[in-house]
Write a structure and sequence with these properties.
The protein is an all-alpha fold. It has eleven helices and no strands. The protein has one domain.
Length: 240
């Protein structure tokens, strides 16, 4: 709770800057793809805006949960907070869980902002407990991934490169803007294994009153556990 409180104090002090980042990118994507591509998905069962918005919700949860890696690296390279944590009687799993929860809070808030944009644009979108479950699970998974990559980075430049190789491809390939059926079979099989693909499917199913694909939810949860284990391993190595 102390780690979560510390990160949320930082979030509170920079809230309006974070809010601007939560709004601008989804809004640009929605205007560029939602309006320009409206009605151009031949054979689609739903309006393109209704298809796009859940993908943006999942992408925002991913991007901003993963953004906790930036705060971790600032605390490592500049504030030296991580050095203080290393000397404190705090176990690795406590630190990892605290940072994971901190990143998830940011991802959930960013996803809520996208949902509000959907209300403003009057997109057909269902607000259900299943939607909350899908967003929370997505945020937790990518927040755990952020900790692993943050500890592996040696500089801020390394963190930016990692984001370019991990987050950016998933943001554009994993069913956010277009259905996965548009890809060749061999590529679609690879993309479906990436964590944002089941996350987007979960959010989209919940938003459209469809049954949740529980196998994909279990797969995403399993990936999250792997990320948590990897995070604890890299934190332990960083503390040695």
């Amino acid at each position: 709770m102390a780690i979560l409180l510390r990160e949320n104090i930082i979030l509170k002090r920079k809230f309006w800057k974070y809010l601007a980042s939560w709004v601008v990118s989804p809004l640009l994507y929605f205007v560029a793809f939602g309006w320009a591509g409206r009605g151009r998905m031949v054979g689609a069962e739903v309006d393109y805006a209704a298809f796009l918005l859940p993908g943006l919700v999942a992408m925002s949860a991913m991007t901003h949960s993963f953004g906790i890696s930036t705060e971790i690296n600032i605390s490592r390279f500049y504030w030296k907070t991580f050095d203080e944590i290393r000397t404190a009687p705090i176990s690795d799993w406590v630190y990892v869980v605290g940072e994971t929860m901190s990143g998830a809070v940011r991802g959930i808030l960013a996803a809520c902002v996208v949902v509000l944009l959907g209300l403003i644009f009057r997109v057909n979108f269902a607000f259900t407990p299943s939607l909350l479950f899908a967003v929370v699970l997505t945020a937790l998974v990518f927040s755990a991934l952020a900790i692993s990559t943050a500890m592996l980075a040696k500089t801020h430049a390394d963190q930016g490169m990692i984001s370019s190789f991990i987050i950016t491809p998933m943001a554009f390939l994993c069913g956010t803007f277009f259905p996965l059926g548009a890809y060749p079979d061999w590529l679609r099989g690879v993309i479906q294994c990436l964590p944002l693909s089941p996350a987007a499917n979960l959010v989209r199913a919940a938003a459209h009153h469809q049954p949740l694909p529980w196998l994909q939810a279990l797969y995403l949860a399993a990936i999250g556990l792997v990320f948590l284990g990897a995070a604890m391993a890299v934190v332990r190595r960083a503390k040695d």
